[in-house]
Design goal:
Order of helices and strands: HHHHEEEEEEEEEEE
Oligomer: single chain
Largest sheet: 3 strands, antiparallel
Number of domains: 2
Length: 300
Amino acid sequence: MEKNKEIKNKTRKLKTIKFCNKKIFILKGMLLRAKKGKRLSSAASITVEASLVLPLFIFFFVNILGAFDILKLQCDMEAALHQTGSEIMESAGILRHIKEGEEPGVIKGALSAAYAGKRVRDYLGEEYLDNSCVVNKSSGLSFAESAFLSDGDIIDIVASYKVHPILGIVEFTNFPMESRFYGHAFTGYNGDAKAENSSKEEEMVYVTEHGSVYHRSLSCSHLNFSVRAVDFKNVSSQRNVDRCKYYQCEYCKKATGGTVFITDYGNRYHTNVNCSGLKRTIFTIPISQAHGKGPCSECG
C-alpha cells in the first residue's frame, strides 16, 4: 500500500512539473511573438518616415546644386557683358572722332541692343546657353532695356532673362534675373574743342620729347606719322613730303648697310625701329611753356 502511495505521489509531481513546463513554454512563445510584433511595427514606421523625408531631402539638395549653376551663369554673363561693353565703349570713341560727311558704317551699328546681344551670345556660345538654366536658351536673353550714349557718353547694357531650378514645384518655377554693364564711352580729350571760358584760359598745345615745334591739333600728321623701311643704299635718293633729304639720326648707331627706317615728315633715317626718334611721346602744355619751339607748319 505504501509503495502504491509513493508511486501516485511521484506521478502527481511529474504531472505538475510537465504542466508548469508547458505553461512556461506557452509564456515564452507569447513573449517572443510580442517582441517580434514590436519590431515589425518599428520597421514599418521608419519606412513610412523615410518615404516622406527622403524625397524632400533630394529635392532641396538638387536645387542647392542648381543654385550654384545659376551663380556660375551670373558670373559668365557679367564677363560677357564686360567684354562686349569694352568693345562698344571703344567704338563710341571712334565714332566721336569721325568727321562730318564721312560714313560711320559698321561703327554706328555697333551702338545698338541687337549688336550687344549678338556679341554676348557669341562670347557665351550657343552650346553653353542651350545647356544652361536660362529659359528658352539663347532666345531667352533680352537687351531691350539697354541704352547707348545716353547723357552724352553713357553705355548701359542690360541683359534680362529667366532661369529655372533643376526641380520645380508650385510657386518655385521660373524667376527673373538681370545682369548689367554700365560705363562711359572712350571719348578721350578733344584738343580742338574750345572751352566756354577760352578767353580766360591759356591755350594748350602739344609737344614731343625731341620735337622743335609745338602743335595746336592732336590730329596733326606730324604727330601721327607712318614708318617706312628702305634699303640703306637707296636712302640718299629718298625725300620726305617737304622734298628734304634724310640724315643720320643722332640717337641711332651709324648705318653701314642693311635696312633703315624713315618717316614722311621727318628728315632723319634710323637704324633701330625702336629709336626714341620714331616714337611720339606727346605732352600737353600751356603755350607759355613752349619756350624755344616754333609753331608747326601744318597746324600752328
